[in-house]
Every structure is written in C-alpha cells, then in structure tokens.
Known about the structure:
The chain has helices at 17-41, 49-105, 110-129, 132-137, 141-155, 162-189, 195-215, 220-243, 256-264, and strands at 7-8, 13-14. By secondary structure, it is mainly α. It has one domain. A two-stranded antiparallel ribbon has the order 1-2. α2 runs antiparallel to α7 (195-215). The longest helix has 57 residues, at 49-105.
Amino acid sequence: MPDFSLRAEKEGKRVSHVEIALIVFACVFGSALVGLRVRTILPRHHLSDESTGVLKLAVGLIATMAALVLGLLISSAKSSFDAVNGEVVRNAASIILLDRVLAEYGPETKEVRDLLKQRVGMSIQIIASGKPAQIAELGGIEAIRRVEGLVLKLEALSPRSDAQRQLQARAIQIANEVLAARQLTMLQAMGSTPAPLLICLVFWLSIIFCSFGLFASANATVIFGLFLGALSTSCAIFLILEMNTPLDGTITVSLAPLRDALAMLGQ
Length: 267
C-alpha cells in the first residue's frame, strides 16, 4: 500500500514530513478561506436557519469521523514509536550480555568481540546520520549476512571444556535473539501511514474548515482562529508521520542505550 514516506518517483528523493504538513495546512486553511469567500456570493436563502442547520448536522458527522481517524492514527503512531524504543533498549541489553558471555568464554573470542563492537558502532553511526536510505539498508540482506557472519564465527569456536561449550551455546542463542530483535526493530521502524486514509482525513478536514468559513463573517479574529486550527491539524499529522519513522526525522528514539552498550563492549 502506498504511503507518504515513500520517495517521490519524479524527483527521486524522499518527500519530507514538513512538506506534507505544509500541503495539509494549505488545503485546510485554503478551504476555510474558500468558505469565507463563498459566503459572500451565495444567495441569502442558502444561509437560512434551515439550511445552516442541515449543514451543521452533516459537518458534525464528518467532524466525528475525522476525530476518530485522527485519534486512531495518533494512537497507532505512538504505539509504534514506543515499540521501537523498547526494542532498542532490549537490543542494547542483549548486546552487553553477549559480550560478557564471550568474555567469560576466554581470550579466544577477542576477534568476535571486536567484530561485535565494530558492527554496533557502525549501526549507531548510520542511525545517528538520519539518512533514510542508509537506515533502510540496515534491514537489507547484506546487513543480515554481516550479522549472520558473526553467528558463524561463534559456531566456529572450539570449546575445550563443558563450561566453554555451555557458554558457546548461550552466546549463539543470544546472538540469534539479537538478530531477530534487530530485524523486528527495523520492520517496526518502517511503519507507514496509508495514503488513502491520510488523503481522506485531509478531505474531511477541508470540508469542516470550509463550513466554518460559511458559518462566520470574515474578520481578523475569525481568520486568525481558522489559521490556528489549520496549523494545529497540520502539526498533528506531522507528529503522526514522524512517530511512524522513529529512526529518522525530527522525532527519533534515543540511541543512548546503544551508545552505553558500545562503551561497555570489549572491557
């Protein structure tokens, strides 16, 4: 299903959430101005109490649907953001545990521990860059193969005692769990807002604001109020889009747990 976080085909670049929010603001506020203009040219009987009463009922229904959809999108985006944030913390804890198990195994794991630290440092650097293309590559097949290479090195260890065999088995188990959690995090971080749903929401909001213009005479106070309302709705949609991509953008999950884990690796 298409979404607004995809790259624009013609421009060959990612459509920013700020641009989408500005488009939403222009549609909503422009509709309000259109409503104010239409009010001045409509015949008076179109603005009678009976007519406005019916319009208010219809707009009330649309407003209810828009509020429900907007609330649903905000709740879904917040849940997605919290899920990725929790996965980052759990990944950091698992990485630290893996490093300590390898340290307990013995000096034979120094190469694997150095490689683990290198991989974690590279991932942090890519995510901190905020570049969507590079972040997307973390969930690609090449990135998976690099992590699988770490697991293969663990399997290639030659334990000399039962204790080392147990530590090797535990290290392999933790590494596989880290790989699975890492892929889950990347999939959750690529959450999308369905374009048809967002377009429908903006259409409803435009109808609502157009009706606001129809029901009020144009003056500075009314126009300023409509401006603030349009700005608020566009900001809400901006927050939804941002929280649906928690690894890049303005609103991102904290990388502090991974940086703390990186500082502890190899010690």
